[in-house]
Amino acid sequence: MAERTEGTADGGETPAPPPASEPKRGGRKTLVIVIAIVIVAAALGGIVFYLSQRGPGPAATTLDHVTVSAAQGTIDQVGTTTLTARAIDSNGLDETPNATFSWSAAPAAVVQITVSGVPYTITVRGLQGGSVTLSASATWQGSTKVGTRSLTVQALQFQLTASTSAPLIGQPFILTARATYANNSLAVNYAGTVTFSSDDPAATLPPQTTFTPGTGIYVFQNVVIRKTGAVHINIVDTVASTLTGSAALTGNQAPTAGFTITPNAADPRQISVDGSTSSDPDGDPLTYAWTFGDGGIGSGVTAAHTYVNAFEQTYPVRLNVTDSHGAANSTAQKYLAFVPATADYAVEQMNSSGSQIYVRVNASNSASNNAGGVLVSYDWSWGDGSTSSVAVNVTYHIYASSYNNVQVVLGLTVHDNYSLSGAVSRNVLVTVSAVPPVAAFTQTIDNDTRTVSVDGSGSRSPIGRTIVAYNWTWGDGSWSGNLSVPRASHTYLSDSNFTIALTVWDSGTPSLLGVANRVAWVQQPALRPWVFFNATRILMHVAVDASATTDPNNNIATYTWGWGDGSPSEIHGVPTASHDYTVSGAHLIRLTVTDATNLVNSTAHYVSVGTSTLDYRFYDFFDVPYGQWWDYRTTIGTYGDIPPDANCFNATSGTQLVSGRPLCATNANPSLPGSESYPYTNWYPLPGNVHWNNPGNDPLVYAPYRFNATAINAPGYNLSEPVYLPVRNYAAPIGQQLKINWYLQYLDSPTDQALRSQGCGVYDSTLASSGFDGFILWSRVNVTTDLAESKRIFGIPLNYTAGNAQSWWNANTKAGYANFGALETWFGVNTGGNPADGGWFAKEGNGKYDVYSSFQYAYTPFCTEIVGQVDPSTGVTHVYISHVAWATEVLLARWFYWGNTSYRTYYLDSTKARGWWGMELSWFEDMRFDATLDANGLDFFLDTVLQYHFEAGSFPGADGKYRTQVGEANPPDDVPYWTWWPVLTDYIAPNNHPTELARYAGKNYIHTTAGAGNYAQNVSFDYVPITWNLKAGQMWDFEFPKGNVVFYDPNTSPIPSNPQGDLARMFAPLQYNFTFPRSLGGVALWNGTANTWSIFGPTNTGGPDSSGPGQYPAVWPYPSIFFTPDPPSASRLDAAVASPTIEDSAAGSLFVMGVFASDWADALFAVPFPARSEIGSQG
Question: Is the CB of residue 1135 less than 8 Å from the CB of residue 1080?
């Protein structure tokens, strides 16, 4: 049973004791009067009365007991509570104000007592863990009583963690102090003051610091040690000397990388590298990681590599050495991989020369494969014991008559000016006869499709000529002639035996021919139909079309449709049908096709139907080129975005002049490409010191993608509250028509200059000092309404008619950006970048939907122009709004997610969101939004690029530990991944603006970007996970690339890595690994052949609803999908942890279940699930 404490019910201050009571009636004064009357009466009446004959008088009032109450029965070490004593007399009255008090504690060392202004109230601070008895001694009227109260002080400890256990001496690192209980949970209310000490006298330690209550964590930047070997940093509370902690570190010095390259003399594409010149000043053992610039990697002190370039090419060879503490150093050399020469020849002429035989050869197809390379000699071996060396590619040889009709081995070796050679030899028949070529071919018959594939590469010329043409006749009246390649194929329309003839011609003059024939027996068996169909869903109605279904035997009989809702199957003789569902949700439609021979085949597709539908398509991952504005973000905006392994994001940035200099130098690093190409990625440092080698830098790597969404009857938006447009007159009747076509794109310099020439006050992109930072957006909005709705939205007075409404527009708008009318001023005036006054757009962006925590600045319009045109006969109004501003993408994202709900009011409660989007992210490019609103809601189509979302990270390897943690396996085995997951858009936490990031105040996650300075370290949350459950009628369709994409290897990338050269890249296909959670609570289908992921609503991932504290996703967003590398040569394993979610087994083998490559499988089996994040505080 919990110990009871006295105090206020609401947790406030303990009230003061009541004042001392007044004396009772009949007290001392009354007694004196009575005695006096008795004495007088007795004297007058001659009565003798002896007072001594009365009974004993009333006992004197004394102090009876002392009570002690505490505001809390348990406090943390260094925490405080208030104790109050009350002195109660023998009559039960409170004499506290009249008594004197003294206080004591036993054991005295456990607490510190501070007496307040009133002696019966004290403040107690816990100094040591344990139980303590507080005694209050009260004295009144000469008597003394003691009251006691037991109090428990919970001992705390400090956990002191460095961002690395072996900091480099002289280099700053991060020290995180956590106040915790004995069970290691955070003491979030700790608010003490701490000091630091160290056995390294030269260390730079944090200053005396007071913790902020509510977190239990304090992060100290720029801590430096300067002693090698064991170093201890100690922390102690300034009041509680037993509240301590320490971090045992190792002062480390970084190794130095060095290596040599030794090429193979015969083929310089084969190299050996030797890193034995690398060293570590502390004598620590080193691990060696090599990258060869072509995607190849190696390990060990020495390694070998072979390039496959067909022409001379320069490769950056890099060695990264890492000591046993995780400190790394790298160095690189450019290696020019020369290519051996190519030898080839043809016999041009062979005829008698007297009694001898004249042979002329041409080696013009031989070549050097190096820039500036030329062939300097041609060495011939004639096969008759003689050789010759010439400097030209055409020569001849005279054979003795005895070699007539003799086959010789005729060999050629060519040498170039790089001392590299190439050789070729062939069997050549020396003869004076005209020997034609020998035609020969192989054939492969696919009877299912009646297709024959042929290969004539076995044809040859006995006399050394080249086969120059191939002609095929197929035996059915068709032919394929004059082909320069030996392979071909042909599909027959019927079954039969066909004679295929190949005719080849050689390179002689005149050309000789050879012929070969083969019979192909083509017999197509009875085959099942090939079944395909598509489904078109409109709310609860689905139309299906199987016109793409074919039968190889052309004998389809029937189409049988099962609708998956319990209704009877339908049999049709035509490939189309339709069905109306009565129950919302996901249904499996199955088509079975039967042919005339009763052979059947089937396929199935899911649909999700509902009274409101919303379909998403996610595609073009890694395949969105970066616009010029990205280089402005780096050069002018100084936000830190960097194109990994390229000089610039966009090729035009090299010729775009800013203050007389190129916006981005495409040749700044000659070993890097001038600009990015597929697969596109972006390295982005979070706000703060954005330089890559800053110790506090926490970069993220993203890949762009596109997505579109199509909605019918989306709730939350209507003609009454369109959200995307204002309502200037709520008293106006609601109209019948409202269409919005919104195009949004960032400004590049040509667009910026065009707008400036028209009077728009946007910053000048040709001046470095102007502030043109790559984040300025141009919205071009076309609105179509009826007259009634335009009065409601734009505020046209109600008395205007279709015939005169145009006059209102003429009076309230002005052409161009330099001049603006009343309506343009109301919407968003030309402020020239001043956020203080911006009309309706700015009031939305800086008020109800405050954009600051996502944009790092206020909503800021630069210019606005509005043009309205009214049809005088119908009143239909067309309005064009041109609006240039900062942060429009954030405002749109808020509208998409929060709908008409106030973000400013409910930013911590996602259950109040009323938008259509299940997540919120701002970074739209090339966005097109076509919307129609009516009484039922919103219909729209959205297509946009989304940036800063598809993210790269890393898992720990088989040992469950990340690369830089103590005990990491050698060599490290961390696993790179790419992930898609839903988030909210805020990523900073300013003091004077609401932020969704406040949901994770005081909480940390493990940062796992390859090459990050804080790799595998706890850092504060910089993203906001969210749960996105699909509703009935909603669907996701992801199309991931099937070819190679880039992964960044966390094991060999230096810490920290310069993204332009240091990051170790590896190229491999995306291999589906797993989803979190494993079940999405609905239908989720992974197709490993097509690399697609399809999810049909409703889903219930089990994720928290983000309604408030305790209801936010703790680790990953719900759901998340992860991809790891899939080396093409690797076999695949099936692993339980990586199984895709298939909720309905009826889909059967139609949906291929992906599994991950064996190269990474073992590494992932031991991953503690989930592994990405940990919560660093509780509360």
Answer: no
SS3 1138: helix
Examine domains 157-251 and 260-337 and report if their fold is the same.
Answer: yes
Q: Which residues contact residue 1045 at a Cβ distance below 8 angstroms, ignoring those fewer than 6 apart?
A: 621, 622, 679, 703, 978, 1067, 1068, 1069, 1070
- Tell me how crowded residue 393 is: count the other CB atoms within 10 A of its CB: 17
- Candidate CATH numbers 3.40.720.10, 2.120.10.90, 2.60.40.10, 3.40.50.1010; the one for domain 534-611: 2.60.40.10
HSE-CB at 2 with a 13 A cutoff on CA atoms is: 6
Q: How many CB atoms lie within 10 A of CB 728?
A: 16
| Pick among 3.40.50.1110, 3.90.1150.10, 3.40.640.10, 2.60.40.10: CATH of 442-522 | 2.60.40.10
Q: Which residue has the tokens 């946007």?
A: 762
| Non-local CB neighbours of 687 within 8 Å, separated by 6+ positions | 856, 987, 988
* Residue 38 host element (H or E): helix 28-44
CA pair distance 668, 671, nearest whole angstrom: 9
- pLDDT per position as a tens digit, 488-525: 999 999 999 999 999 999 998 889 999 999 999 999 99
User: Domain residues of the chain, as ranges?
Assistant: 63-154, 157-251, 260-337, 346-430, 442-522, 534-611, 718-898, 945-1165
Q: 729 pLDDT exceeds 70? A: yes
**Domain at 63-154: CATH code:** 2.60.40.1080
Homologous superfamily assigned to 157-251: Immunoglobulins (2.60.40.10)
Name the pTM for this structure.
Answer: 0.66
Residues in Cβ contact with 176 at an 8 Å cutoff, skipping those fewer than 6 apart:
160, 161, 162, 163, 217, 218, 219, 220, 1018
- In 760-914, alpha helices (H): 787-794, 805-812, 822-828, 839-843, 852-855, 888-898, 903-906
Q: What CATH number has the domain spanning 346-430? A: 2.60.40.10
Which among 1079, 1030, 206 has a CA at the least distance from the CA of 614?
A: 1030
Per-residue pLDDT tens over the stretch 941-953: 999 999 999 999 9
Q: Quick one: DSSP state of residue 846? A: I
75-99 residue pLDDT tens: 999 999 999 999 999 999 999 999 9
Helices and strands, number each (H, E), in the chain = 11, 65
Tokens of 614: 């919303």
757 membership: H or E segment, kind and range: helix 749-757
Alpha-carbon Rg for the chain in angstroms = 43
- Asked if residue 214 lies in contact with residue 1179, where contact means CB atoms within 8 angstroms, the answer is yes
Sequence-ordered strand ranges (E) for 191-327 = 193-198, 209-210, 217-223, 229-237, 244-251, 260-263, 270-274, 286-291, 297-299, 302-306, 313-323
d(CA 579, CA 462): 70
Nearest to 1164 by CA among 973, 952, 1012: 973
Distance linking the first and last C-alpha atoms of the chain: 24
CATH class of 260-337: mainly beta
